Amino acid sequence: MSSDVLLQIRDLQIEGRAGEDWLPIIKGVNLTLKRGEVLGLIGESGAGKSTLGLAAMGFARDGCRISGGEINFDGIDLRTASERAKRNLRGQRIAYVAQSAAASFNPAHKLIDQYCEVPVLGGMSRSKAADEAVTLYRKMQLPDPEDIGFRYPHQVSGGQLQRAMTAMAMACHPDLIIFDEPTTALDVTTQIEVLAAIRDIVRDFNTAAIYITHDLAVVAQMADRIKILLRGDEVEEADTRAMLAAPKAEYTKSLWAVRSFTRPEQPPAEGAPLVSVQGVTAGYGKAQILHDVSFDIHPGRTVAVVGESGSGKSTVARVITGLLPPREGQVVFDGQPLPPDYRARTRDQLRQCQMIYQMADTALNPKLPLRELIGRPAQMYLGLKGRALDARVRDLLALIELEPDQYIDRLPSELSGGQKQRIGIARALAAEPRLIICDEVTSALDQIVQEGILKLLDRLQREFGLAYMFITHDLSTVRAIADDVVVMQLGRVVEQGPKPEMFTPPHAPYTDLLLSSVPEMDPDWLTRLLAAR
Amino acid sequence: MHNKPTRNSVTRRGLLKGATALGAAGLILPASYRAAQATPNQGGTFRIGLGHGNSTDGYDPGLWDNLYAQVFAASRHNQLIEVDADGQLAPEIAESWESPDGKTWVFRIREGVSFHSGKTVTVEDVIASLNHHRGDDATSAIKQFFDPVTDISADGQNVVVTLDAPNGDFAYLMSDYHLAIMPSVDGRIDPASTDGCGPYVVESYEPGVQASLTRNPDYWKSDRAHFDRVEILAILDSAARLNALMTGQVDLIDQIDPATIGMLEARNVANILSIPGNAHYVFPMDSRAAPFNDNNVRLALKYAIDRQEMVDKILGGHGAVSNDNPIGPANRYFHADMEAKTFDPDRARFHLREAGMESLSVDLHVADAAFSGAVDAGALFAETAAQSGININLVREPNDGYWDNVWMQKPFCASYWGGRAVEDHMFTTGYATGASWNDSFWSNERFDELLVMARSEINEDLRREMYQEMQQIVSFEGSVIIPMNNNFVMATAQNVVTPEQVSANWNLDGFRCVERWWFA
Amino acid sequence: MNVLIFLVLAIAASIPLSYAFRAGLVRVLPHEKALVARDMPLTAAFGIMVIGVYVIVAFAAPLLAPFPERAVVGSQFQPWDSTYLLGTDRLGRDMLSRLIYGARNTVGIAFATTALAFVVGALLGIWAALRGGWLDQLLSRFVDALMAIPSLIFSLLLLTIFGTSVLTLILVIAAVDATRVYRIARSVSQGVVVMDYIEAARLRGEGNWYLIRHEILPNALAPLVAEFGLRFCFVFLTISSLSFLGLGIQPPTADWGSMVRDNATLITFGDMTPLMPAGAIALLTVAVNFVVDWQLYRASGLKEQG
Amino acid sequence: MHAVLMMILQRLGLGILTLFVVSVVIFGATELLPGDLASSLLGQSATPETVAALRQQMGLDQPAPVRYWTWLTGVVQGDFGVSLATRRPISDMMSMRLGNTVFLALYAAAIAVPLSLVLGILAALWRNSLFDRVANAGALSAISFPEFFVAYILIFLLAQSGVFPSMVRISPAMGLTDKLYVTFLPALTLTLVVTAHMMRMTRAAIINLMASPYIEMARLKGVSPLRIVLRHALPNALAPIINVVALNLAYLITGVVVVEVVFVYPGLGQLMVDSVAKRDIAVVQAIALIFASAYVLLNLTADVLSTLTNPRLMRRK
C-alpha cells in the first residue's frame, strides 16, 4: 500500500439489528482515500452514507455491527484495534463533524471547554489549546473569536455552531475529517459561509475529508471525487467534474433529473381571491413577528411564501388557520372574514382550510393506524361511517399512490418518510378542502422523494382545483411548483408577484441574495460567487 | 392508645380494712412494714419500657389516662391512701382516716413530709389537690367522685370531707391514682408542675418519649425506692419493646404480645411475670337492640364461643376461662359452681331455634384499643361461631376514637374491665339498671332488687347466696360475653427482683414497681 | 445463613425456569407476539412468569388452598409439616392457605386501587395539560398542596373519618395516589400536547374527549404504564404501613401487608413466618418492575445492546 | 440571576398559597374526625359535663371558622400558640423533634444520595451487565418490603448481636459521633428505602441521554466511557436527578413515622400522629405546615438548582 493512501476500506459489510435478526446496511463497499483528498459521499437517506462515514472511524452505532471487510487507517486495522487504541485515534487523528451542531454540542458546557477536551486528553496544555481555539475560530470567520468560546451552544447561531464544530474537529490537526451533512440544517445564505469556511480550512491544513451529503450541488463545491451510494451499495465513483459532466449509472442520472421538474406556467390570476390576507400584524406576547402582511391566494393556484428561518412565514400560516389571532388586520376567506380564533370558526370553515406539516413524524399520531388518521376528517366533516368510510379511506390511499389493502391498517412508524408525508396529504384531502397550507412539506425529504410529492401535489391541484399556500425556504421548490411568490424577511413582505416576474431581475436586494445563494451544479459556483461578493 | 381510666379498683380486702379503720381510727402500717423480705439492694438505674405514652400527654392529674402517666405519677407523687401489694388500703400522706357516719370523713395528714422543692406538705396542699378535681368547671376524669362532696375543709392537721349522703366506700375512692398530692399556691395546685412528695424527683421529661428521675433523698418512706435513678420510656411498638428488653436497653416491659411469650421464655433472657387478677375481656351486646334483646340469641352466642381456645391463643395461656362472670375467683363471693358454658355448637343452634332463627348474622365491632388482641379475638370468635350457623361479621374500627365512637355506640363490640374486688362495686357500676358503664344497657328487675338487698344484708351466708344468684343471672341472662380473665403480663431483666407479693390491683405492681422493686 | 443459601438456590433455579418459560411462550404464541417474546430479556420473562403464577393463584385460590381462608384448623404456630405445609399462624389458621387467598385479596385490592387512581389522576392530568390556563393552574396548585401533606398521615386521617371498609380503603389510597399520577400524566401530556398532530386535531375541531382518548392517551401510555407498575406495588406497602398504624384491611381477610404486620414481632426471634408474605410482595414487585422496565425500554426505542 | 430571583419569589408566593390550602385541608379533615380534643383527652371517663367544661376552657365551643381564623391570625403573626392537650407552647414541643427529624433525614440522605448516585452511574455505565441487573433487582427488593419489616430485619441482624442499639435514645447533650452511632439503624433503614428510587432515576436519566447526538459526538471524539457518563451525560441529567433527590428528601422528613415508631425515635411524624389521635388541632396544623414547607422548599431548591445547572435556562442569548 502506498503511503499516500490514508484510508483503505475493502468489502465493508455492516449489519443493523432488527429484533433478533441482523439486516445488512452496507453491502461490501470499497473506499480509498489519499492524504489531503476530499471525497464526497452522496446518497439518499438510508443509503448508508453516515454508517460508512462512521465506519471510517472504526465506529458502529448502537444496534449496528461491522460484520465483514477491512478498514485500514494509515496502517492501523480498525477492526482489530482495541477500544482504547481507537479512542486514541478519534479526535486526535480522525475527527467528525455532525449534521446538527446544535444537537451535537453538549448543552451543558461552553464551546471552548468542548474544544479543549480532545487536545487536553491528547496531552496539550489547556491554555495552549484555548489559544489555538481562538486562532481556529478566527480562521473559521467566527465573530468575536476571542470571546465566542465562552458562550454556551444555545447562545450561538446554527451557522456559527457548525463552524465552531469544524474548528473543534480541527483542534488536533487530524489527518481525516468526516463531515456528515454539515450544512443541511442551515439556511441557504448561511450555508454559503459555512461551505466556504470548511473548504478553506480543509485546504489550508491539507486534511483529507469525507464529505457526506444528499445535495449534489453542495458536494460539487467541496469534493475532489464523488462516490454515490444506494441502499448500502456503491453505485459509481468518479472525479467531481467527470461525474457532473457525464454520470454513468441510471440512478445517478435520476438524481440529476430531480431538479428538472417544473410545472407549466399558468396565466396570471383573475377574479376574486379565495383567501385574502389583509394587513395582518401579529406576534406572541411582547414580540411582534408579522408587520402589516398582505397577499392573496387565488383558487387553483399555488402561492409560495419564501423566506429564511425567522422570516415569519410559518406565523402567517398560524394566522390563517386561526391558531394565532392577529392584532390587526384580518383574513378573508371566499369573501367572508374568518373569525380570528379557530375555536370560533364553524366546522365548515375549518374543513375548507387544511394543513400539511413539515415533519410528518410529529404531525401524524404514531399510535393511530392510517385508517383512523385518514378516516377521521372524512368521518367528522362528511359524516361517513362503516363501509362508506372504509371505501373513502381506500380511495384516498389510492389517490396518494399507496396500495390500500397493504397500508390501511399500518401505523405511521411502518412507513418511509415520503409515505408519511403522503398520508399527511391524504388526511388534508379527506376533508375536501379548498385551501391546503403546505408548511415546508418537502424540506425533510430526499430529492427523489421530494419530486414525487411535488408531482402528487401538482396532480391533485389540477384534479380538485385546490389552492396551495406553499411555505418553503427552498427556491428550487418554488421554481418547480409556484404560480405566485411572496418573499418574506423579518416579518415583512419584501416582494410579491407571479413567478415569472419574480425569477427575472430586477429584484429587491434580499430576493437577490436569496436567489444567488442557491447552490448550482457547477464546481466553480462557490468560488465565483465568493469572488463576486 | 387509650387506657380506660378509673375502671380498675382496689380490692375488697382493702376496702374492708378501711372500713375497719372507721371504728378503730387506728393507724394501719403499709404492707411493706410487715412483709419484710430479704433486704433490698440500693442503687442502679431502673429503665422501664412501656407500650403507652404519647407526645400529647399532659401534666394535668385530672387527665392522666394511660399506663405511662400512671407509672410516671406513681414515681413522683404520693396519694392520700395507697393500695398495698395485698390489695389492702394503706396510709400514705393520710396517716389515718375515720368516718363516724360515712358522711363526714376525716383524714389525718402525715407530718414532716416535704415536696421535692423542699416545701412541707400541708393540709392546704391536700385540699387544693383534691379540689382540683372538684367543682363545676373542673375538667378531671374523676370529677364525679366529688359530686356528692359538699365541703372540704381543714381542721388542724386533718382534712375534713363532708358528703351529702353516707358512703362507706369513700376512703377507697381516695386511693385513686389521679389524686396525687401536689403543692398549692393560693389554694390551687399548678397542674403543669411535676413537683410531688413521691419517691423520685423528675430530672427531665419529654412527653411521649422519656422521663428521667433520681431518687428523692428526703423520701419519707425509708424502706422504699431502691433505685438511684428511674427512666420511663414510651416504646409503643411491641417488637421494639421486646428488642429493647432483649438487648438490655430496658429492665422492664409491659404488654407482651402473647404470641411471643413462649419464645421469650425459651430464650431465657428475661423473667416473665404473669399476675392473675379480676381483669377481664368482654363483648357487650346492646340488650335493647334486636337481635340481642332476645336472651336466646345471647345464649346462642355465649355457647358459640370457644373460651379455652381464646385463653390459649389470645392470652397465650396467661389468663383463665370466665363463665360470663364479671366476678372473679379472687372475689369473696365468687360462684365457682355455676354450670360451665363450654363451646357447644349444638346448644348454640338450639338457642337459635328457640329464638325462632335458623341462622344469625351480626356485626362485631373491634379494635385493639378495646384490649390487646381484640381483633384476633373477634376473628377467632367469628370462626368458631360459624360452626353454630352464626355469621359474625368482623368490623375493625380505628383505635383512634374507639371509646367515643364504638363503645356503647355500636350494639356489639369489644371492651375490657379491670375488675372490681367488691362485688357490689362491680355490679353497681357495670350491671345495675341505668349504671353509667352498663355498656350492654341491660336491665333485670330481680338483679336490681338483689343488689340493693345484698348491700344491707349482714348475714354472710344470705349475702353469699344473693351475690351468687346475681352472678347466675348475669351469666345466663346478662348481655355481656365474658370469655376470659386476663393476667397482667410483664417481663423484666433477670436481675430485677420483685417482692414475693406483686399487686394484682393494677398493672406493674399497682404502678408502684419503681418504689417496691430493686436490682439483685 | 440458611436464608442466604435458599435465596441463591432460588435465583439459580429461576434462571433456567425463565429461560424455559420464554422458549415456551415463543412456541405457543402466534407469530407476531412470538417475535416480541423471543426478544425479551430473561428478566422480563421471569417477571411475566411470576405475574402469571400470581394471577393463576389469585383466580384459583379456592382450588389451590388446602384449607379455607379463615378457618382455624390447628393450634397456634404449628411448625411446617405435611398437613400444614407452611405451618399455622397465631390463631391456628393454615399459613399456606392464607398466603394463597392473600394473593387474591392483595392483588385484587391493589389493582382496583391503582386502576382507580389512574383513571382519575391520568384523566385530570391530561385534561389539565390539554386545557392549560387557569384550569391547569387551579388543579395543579391544589394537587401540589395535597402532595405537600405526608401521604401516610393523610390516608390515616381520611380513613379515620370515613371508616375502614375495603371500599373506603381503596378510595382513600386511590385518592392519595391519584395526585402522584396526576403530576406524571400532566407532565407527560405536556410533552405530547405540543406535537403537530394535536394541533392538527384541534384545527379539525375535535373535542377534548377525543383529544384525550385518541390523540394524547395512546402516546402518554408508556410512562403511565411504568408508573402503574410502581404504584401498584406501592399500594401493598401503603396497606401494610396502614396496618402497622392500626388501619389496614379488615380482618379476618387474608392480605399480605397485614400478614406481615401481624407476624412482624416474630422476626425478633428469627422466625421465618413474616418473611413469606413479605417475600410474596417483594417478588411481585420485582417481577412487575422487570416487565415495566422492558416495556419502557421497548417504548423508548432506545437501542441497547445485549 | 435576575430570572432565578424572580422565579424564587414567584415560587415562594405559590408556596405560601400551598401552605394556606394545606392548612385549610388539614383543618377541615380534623374537624371531620369523629370526636374532639375534649372527649379524647377524657377518654372513656368522659361525662357530658366534664367534656362541656373542657370544651369551653379550650374554646372548642366556638364555631369552626372562628377557630380557624383565630389560629390563622396567630400563625401569620408567627405565633403557633399552645398545644391544647399539654398546654405547652407548640414551638417548644416541636423544636427538639424537628431537630431530630432533620438530623435523621440528613443522616440518611448523606448515605443514600452518594450511594444511589454512584450505583446509578455505574449501572448506567455498565448497563445490562450483571452488575446492573443485580443492583437493579437488589434495589427493587429493598423498596418492596414494608419499612417496618426492613427495620425489624436490621434489628434482628445488627442489634440483637449488640452491634447497634435497637432503640434510639437521643439527647441534645450527645456528641455527634454518639448520635451517629445510635441513629445508625434508622438511617440505614431509610437509606434502603430511598436508595432504589434515586438510583433508578439516575440510571434512567443518564441512559436516556446516551442516545443524544452530543454523546455520540463525545464518543467520536475518543472520550472514555466513564468520562462520557460523568462529564457529558451527568450534567445534562442533573435536573431529573435533583428532582428525585428532593422528593426523597421530602419523604425522609415527612414520611418516616413508621420508622420513628420502630426505633422509638422522637420525631415530628410520631408527634403528628399522636396529635391527630388527640385531635390537638393546633399541633397537627403546625406540623402539617412544617412538613408542607419542607416539601415546598425542597421542591423550590430542586427547581433553582435545576435552573442553575442548565445553561439554557440560566443564560439567555
Automatic annotation (TrEMBL), chain A:
<dbReference type="Pfam" id="PF08352">
    <property type="entry name" value="oligo_HPY"/>
</dbReference>
<dbReference type="GO" id="GO:0005524">
    <property type="term" value="F:ATP binding"/>
</dbReference>
<keyword id="KW-0997">Cell inner membrane</keyword>
<keyword id="KW-0547">Nucleotide-binding</keyword>
<keyword id="KW-0067">ATP-binding</keyword>
<dbReference type="InterPro" id="IPR027417">
    <property type="entry name" value="P-loop_NTPase"/>
</dbReference>
<dbReference type="InterPro" id="IPR003439">
    <property type="entry name" value="ABC_transporter-like_ATP-bd"/>
</dbReference>
<feature type="domain" description="ABC transporter">
    <location>
        <begin position="7"/>
        <end position="256"/>
    </location>
</feature>
<dbReference type="InterPro" id="IPR003593">
    <property type="entry name" value="AAA+_ATPase"/>
</dbReference>
<keyword id="KW-0813">Transport</keyword>
<dbReference type="InterPro" id="IPR013563">
    <property type="entry name" value="Oligopep_ABC_C"/>
</dbReference>
<dbReference type="InterPro" id="IPR050388">
    <property type="entry name" value="ABC_Ni/Peptide_Import"/>
</dbReference>
Automatic annotation (TrEMBL), chain B:
<dbReference type="InterPro" id="IPR006311">
    <property type="entry name" value="TAT_signal"/>
</dbReference>
<comment type="similarity">
    <text>Belongs to the bacterial solute-binding protein 5 family.</text>
</comment>
<dbReference type="InterPro" id="IPR019546">
    <property type="entry name" value="TAT_signal_bac_arc"/>
</dbReference>
<dbReference type="InterPro" id="IPR039424">
    <property type="entry name" value="SBP_5"/>
</dbReference>
<feature type="domain" description="Solute-binding protein family 5">
    <location>
        <begin position="89"/>
        <end position="438"/>
    </location>
</feature>
<keyword id="KW-0732">Signal</keyword>
<dbReference type="InterPro" id="IPR023765">
    <property type="entry name" value="SBP_5_CS"/>
</dbReference>
<dbReference type="Pfam" id="PF00496">
    <property type="entry name" value="SBP_bac_5"/>
</dbReference>
<keyword id="KW-0813">Transport</keyword>
<protein>
    <submittedName>
        <fullName>ABC transporter substrate-binding protein</fullName>
    </submittedName>
</protein>
<dbReference type="InterPro" id="IPR000914">
    <property type="entry name" value="SBP_5_dom"/>
</dbReference>
<dbReference type="InterPro" id="IPR030678">
    <property type="entry name" value="Peptide/Ni-bd"/>
</dbReference>
UniProtKB/TrEMBL annotation, chain C:
<feature type="transmembrane region" description="Helical">
    <location>
        <begin position="228"/>
        <end position="249"/>
    </location>
</feature>
<feature type="transmembrane region" description="Helical">
    <location>
        <begin position="107"/>
        <end position="129"/>
    </location>
</feature>
<protein>
    <submittedName>
        <fullName>ABC transporter permease</fullName>
    </submittedName>
</protein>
<feature type="transmembrane region" description="Helical">
    <location>
        <begin position="44"/>
        <end position="65"/>
    </location>
</feature>
<keyword id="KW-0472">Membrane</keyword>
<feature type="transmembrane region" description="Helical">
    <location>
        <begin position="275"/>
        <end position="297"/>
    </location>
</feature>
<keyword id="KW-1133">Transmembrane helix</keyword>
<dbReference type="InterPro" id="IPR000515">
    <property type="entry name" value="MetI-like"/>
</dbReference>
<dbReference type="InterPro" id="IPR050366">
    <property type="entry name" value="BP-dependent_transpt_permease"/>
</dbReference>
<feature type="transmembrane region" description="Helical">
    <location>
        <begin position="149"/>
        <end position="176"/>
    </location>
</feature>
<feature type="domain" description="ABC transmembrane type-1">
    <location>
        <begin position="103"/>
        <end position="296"/>
    </location>
</feature>
<keyword id="KW-0813">Transport</keyword>
TrEMBL record, chain D:
<keyword id="KW-1003">Cell membrane</keyword>
<dbReference type="InterPro" id="IPR035906">
    <property type="entry name" value="MetI-like_sf"/>
</dbReference>
<feature type="domain" description="ABC transmembrane type-1">
    <location>
        <begin position="98"/>
        <end position="302"/>
    </location>
</feature>
<feature type="transmembrane region" description="Helical">
    <location>
        <begin position="180"/>
        <end position="198"/>
    </location>
</feature>
<protein>
    <submittedName>
        <fullName>ABC transporter permease</fullName>
    </submittedName>
</protein>
<keyword id="KW-0472">Membrane</keyword>
<feature type="transmembrane region" description="Helical">
    <location>
        <begin position="138"/>
        <end position="159"/>
    </location>
</feature>
<keyword id="KW-1133">Transmembrane helix</keyword>
<keyword id="KW-0813">Transport</keyword>
<dbReference type="InterPro" id="IPR000515">
    <property type="entry name" value="MetI-like"/>
</dbReference>
<feature type="transmembrane region" description="Helical">
    <location>
        <begin position="98"/>
        <end position="126"/>
    </location>
</feature>
<comment type="similarity">
    <text>Belongs to the binding-protein-dependent transport system permease family.</text>
</comment>
